[in-house]
Amino acid sequence: AQTVTQSQPEMSVQEAETVTLSCTYDTSESDYYLFWYKQPPSRQMILVIRQEAYKQQNATENRFSVNFQKAAKSFSLKISDSQLGDAAMYFCAYRDFPQGGSEKLVFGKGTKLTVNP
Amino acid sequence: DTAVSQTPKYLVTQMGNDKSIKCEQNLGHDTMYWYKQDSKKFLKIMFSYNNKELIINETVPNRFSPKSPDKAHLNLHINSLELGDSAVYFCASSQSWRENEKLFFGSGTQLSVL
Q: Which of A41, B23, B58, B69 has its CA 20 to 30 A from that of B49?
C-alpha cells in the first residue's frame, strides 16, 4: 500500500523567512500525483500545490514551490517570504491510478507550521 | 456563498446514540467524500460517492452509513456511537472522481462522544 510520511510534526519560521517542509512517499507506481494541502485553524482544507510525477519541472505557485525528487521519492514544500497567514497544518498527499481500483488520496500525518512575527 | 457546507459544526453526544451529519455542495460537482481526521490530525478517506453511487468504501464499521439522495448531498449517519468515533469529520467534493485531488472541503464537524 502507498504511504506518505511527514517526518516533521512541527516547524517554525520567522516572518519573511523561508521554510521547507519534508515529505517522502512509498510507491511502486510510475504514474501518480503529489499534493500539498493547507489546513488553517478554520479547519478548511486548501489545495496549495500539485505535481505530476511525469513532469520533471518542479511546480510553483507564487511563494510556494516544491522540490520533487522522483528517484528518492521525496516531495518537499518550500514557502518563501513566510507570512503570518501561512501558519497552519500542512498535509502532503499522494494519488495514483490503480488498475481496477478506486483512486483516492492518501495523506501524510501533517506538519504544524508556526510563523513568528 | 459556501461551496461545501456541513452541519453541525460541533456535535457532542453520549455513547450509544445515533447521529447524522449533513453535507451539501453547490459547485455542481459529481463526486463527494467523507474523511475522518483523528486526534493526531491523521486524515483518512471513509467513503466516496460519484453521481449518488458508492465508489469508495474503506474499512469502516457498518455503524457508519452514508446516504446520497442526490449528487449535491452526502449525509453520514452513525449508529451506536462509540468513544473511538470522536474525531473531526470532513465532507468534500470534486468535479469528478478522476479529479479527486482538486477537493473542496467543508469546514468539518467536530464529534465528541462522551
A: A41
Q: Of B44, B52, B61, B66, whose CA–CA distance to B97 is shortest?
A: B52
> What are B54-93's pLDDT values in tens digits?
887 777 889 999 999 999 999 999 999 999 999 999 999 9
Which residues, at least 6 apart from B108, have a Cβ–Cβ distance to it below 8 Å?
A43, A44, B6, B9, B37, B88, B89, B90
Nearest Cα of chain A lies from the Cα of B57 at a distance, in angstroms, of: 9
> What mean pLDDT comes out for the span A32-59?
88
Distance of alpha carbon B37 from alpha carbon B89, whole angstroms: 6
Q: Cell numbers at residue A56, please?
A: 520533471
Write down how long chain B is. 114
